[in-house]
Amino acid sequence: MPPPGPDAGSMPPAAPRRKRGRLGLVLAALAAGAGIIAVKIVSGLLVGSVVGSALGNFFGGPYQRLPSEVRSQFEQRVETAVGNQLDGMSDTAAADRLRSLVQHGLLRLDDAALVRHLTLQTQALDSGNTATCAGFARASIGGKAASADISRGLMEALDTRSLQEFLDINIKGLEAEARGAPAARTVSEAEAQTMFETLANRLSEQDIGAIQAMSAGTTTTDEAACHAIRSLYDTALTMSSSDVALLARYDIQP
């Protein structure tokens, strides 16, 4: 899907438009004439790949850094939660189904878990190399799925303890979805609007320019693309605790 363009004139910024991608985040630049960018951070950074690895779809690479007993425990938890839901499915269909279960299940977790989830995503992005970071930024802002190489690069950037913690949160979401409890909680567009304006207004003109350029498909350097996307995530975590909790939950909504 093509990236959304700026709204014309001085119209007030609308709520961010939904963009879905298997991995990464999508940025919507709205009301550019007024210098406002509303941001929707879409869930997906690592989720599909790392949970899929527990079912044998992503063996090798970062997942193999985890102790064998930890991998075995994760795989048993996933198999118990999923049951026979993936029987007869192709690898692609099974991965899609698993991602959906995790995404919906994460909405059942408490704010603390989701804020930690967002924090670990940010840690992966901050620790990765510039080329991987820039590739993620361009794919995400362009509304495309990040490549497997980019996803693995981000996972490689997490230390073993953080990777294990990130996996654990995702599997807890899967288990919550299997139980059907607690009830899922979502964030409305109205609740999100002020938060997005606060976030956008904290970004530098340089980063706003890079985001707008990538949204328009204009060439940007790796350094500019990476700086902008890192600034976006890092700045998000400096907002009030209530705003960060809203963002962390809105981040994973389908």
SSE layout:
Elements: E1 26-27, E2 39-40, H1 47-53, H2 68-82, H3 91-106, H4 111-127, H5 130-141, H6 148-157, H7 160-179, H8 189-201, H9 205-215, H10 222-236, H11 241-251
Antiparallel strand pairs: 1-2
Describe the overall structure.
The protein is mostly helical and 254 residues long. It has helices at 47-53, 68-82, 91-106, 111-127, 130-141, 148-157, 160-179, 189-201, 205-215, 222-236, 241-251, and strands spanning 26-27, 39-40. It has 11 helices and 2 strands. The chain has a two-stranded antiparallel sheet.
Descriptive tags:
single chain; 254 residues; mainly alpha; two-stranded antiparallel sheet; 11 helices; 2% strand; globular; disordered N terminus
N→C terminal distance: 16 Å
Radius of gyration: 18 Å
Main-sheet strand order equals 1-2
Overall number of strands? 2
Q: Percent range for helical residues?
A: 55-70%
Please indicate the percent range of residues in DSSP E strands (runs of 2 or more): under 5%
Mean pLDDT: 74
The sequence of SSEs as H and E is EEHHHHHHHHHHH
Residue windows where pLDDT falls under 50 for at least 5 positions: 1-60
The total count of helices amounts to 11
Broad structural category = mainly alpha
Given the C-alpha coordinates, what overall shape results?
A: globular
Biggest beta sheet attributes:
2 strands, antiparallel
